[in-house]
Fold this sequence. Notes:
Blueprint: E1 3-5, H1 11-29, H2 32-58, E2 64-67, E3 70-73, E4 78-81, E5 85-93, E6 96-106, H3 109-115, H4 121-131, E7 135-138, H5 146-157
Antiparallel strand pairs: 1-2, 2-3, 3-4, 5-6, 6-7
Amino acid sequence: MPLKVQLRPNAAYLALLAAGVILLGFGAVATGAVRYLGFVFGAALVVLLGYPVVLSTICRIPVVVVEPDGIRLPLMGVRLGWADVATARLGVTPGAPGRPVLLIVPVDAGATIRSMRPWLRRQGRDELSRYGSPVVLQQASLNRPLGEVLAAIEAARAGRQVTG
């Protein structure tokens, strides 16, 4: 059975989502250009931040799936077979040493970025330059510890049973 990791929105994530809803409400009652700005920015926040939450928490689409044949990142649109994964390791956020991240380093970063959903490709390029990998998972948004996910990746690569 594969290890499935769901999105768990943290307080900052939910605050930004709430700000989007407030902007939409403000756009509904305001007039003129402010109305359109409220709608545009509110809708952008709600769609960009609400989409992963709805898919992962309500539709139960996982963020990460570790399987015997590789790693899937359904929300990101990425699927990596074990031959496509150079390494997976824990790291830290530059400038914030207390914020751990899990780096899944693909053999071909460019191909991985091209396989991402179009609106995530820029983020993938930014993370490649910042972390050295386009696939970066932050602990704050996952329902399982990064160490557990890394252990499942290592076990699956070694051919051992992965559960979760």
